[in-house]
Automatic annotation (TrEMBL):
Pfam families: GGDEF. It catalyses: 2 GTP = 3',3'-c-di-GMP + 2 diphosphate. This is diguanylate cyclase. One of its GO terms (molecular function) is diguanylate cyclase activity. Its EC number is 2.7.7.65. GO terms for biological process: cell adhesion involved in single-species biofilm formation; negative regulation of bacterial-type flagellum-dependent cell motility. NCBIfam families: GGDEF. The lineage of its organism: Bacteria, Pseudomonadati, Pseudomonadota, Betaproteobacteria, Burkholderiales. GO terms for cellular component: plasma membrane. It comes from the Bacteria.
Amino acid sequence: MSHRTEPLSDSERLQGLLTMARELLQIDEPSAVLRLAGRAIVELSGATEALLLIGGESPLGVAFGCDGTASSAHVQHPWYAAAHARMTGGPSVPAPTGTLMVAVPQAQPIAVLLAACPVGSTPEIARRQAATLETALELTAATLGRIQVRSSLEQLVTTQYTQLAERTQEHADELARRDLAARDMLSLSLTDVLTGLNNRRGFFVRTEPLFRLAQRQHRGSALVYVDIDALKVVNDTLGHAVGDQMIRDAAAVLRASLRDADVLARMGGDEFVAYALDEAQPHALLSRLQQALDAFNRLRQRPYLLSLSAGMVSCDPAASTTLSDYIQQADDAMYEHKRRRLH
């Protein structure tokens, strides 16, 4: 295992702790818990070695090497005396130079962790490392308590475990909330609020990989550009609320004309774009669109008839044309279609 020369960012540490919490929930063997804990301590704090001491009638000592490998540690370990003094409240023994010491809980601790951190760390980096180590220690101790380890770990299953488990759950819940919030923020940045479709950015994010795949595999695809006719007239005469409903109706008709695997987006205003992979007969897509549009207008549930202008181009997998170029070509074809209908 190689060590990073730069400290982890806050988001990397949070993601690492969230992953650790998730994996610990799946573990029922103490040895597996210690293997995971050693790896996480080294990777998340940058420690080159560490000592874990868990209290009980016969305290359990575990040493972690630079690769996170766990091994038994006895009183002869050079850090044992400092960890034991912190746990028992005996005469203070200074922590070895270049190490960080954390304990849970702070008063009358049942678990202590010492870790050798990179020389030259700043006070701010050391503070973050200590916070990371403390959270990793809480997760480890609480998991060992959860699986009710016997022998030297029997004392861990006490009322203190309940407190540690609650704190661990709070940490896991907070990390999960942040993880969910990050996913929600990404989804919002790719979504058109009015229609729920992809927005312009979302279209490129989702279509570019499909477009490159089609080129590599020499598969046909098609791109359709659509514009709502007379939206401005509806806005001016019936109001923008009705105009917004017209946009949502157009989105629904387009969605009904496409397959689930196709990518549909609102590019802004009254314009939409769709990318269809493996469209063997591209013009069949326009036929489906016209059928869906006719079916919508036959219902006559709106104070307007929905009319769409559409332009389509087939994407040649052997050509060097970019996705943006095809969008422009489809846009030009759409305007030509609109011009022919209006004249």
